[in-house]
């Protein structure tokens, strides 16, 4: 068995695919950044990300897939589901070995697994576009914190850039410890370490605009007023707005006293 050790980026994974074919590596398993201690007797192949090699793989895939299928591989990568790199690689092998488009061959378990991962990422990105709640700091920066199941920041940045083009904002993924920052012109990736008491009443008072709590209170009252108690259906509510998102949603957080 050969462990393919890459840097955890999509370009790094594409480079790894190129080198698997280049060096005719077999019985492979992927590892991010360092070798897995569970595979003591495997050979290790260290991949250095090479954009030229990555582009070669993409150029080989593009004519064999629809635009949706081509983008779907990247979305599957962002899903971070277990063994997704191996699933993606076996899908790529199937694509290259077939003379026709294989995207709809759901009788093949690899095609189906890749489709499920792609759908998961797409669904999570759509939810984040709806569930991000911004707060305003004293220096007029709108910030929102999310913890999505998938790494969706690369997919949602255009949505927020278009929707909030006249405001500076930061969306931070607390699970992956990075964010995207918009400065009224461009979106940049940033890495931050937030205060462990970031959501405490004292800390929010220190950094938030003087009117922020007032507007949050208005939003909670509006949310409460549009919910008709007699028609409440918590099962359906949780289905559309899972509880794992609630801690970063203003309407679900009790007012700070």
TrEMBL record:
Pfam name, any one: DUF4130
Domain DUF4130 span(s) in chain numbering: 83-251
Organism superkingdom: Bacteria
InterPro entries given in the database record: DNA_repair_put, DUF4130
Protein name: Probable DNA metabolism protein
Organism for this UniProt entry: Flavobacterium saccharophilum
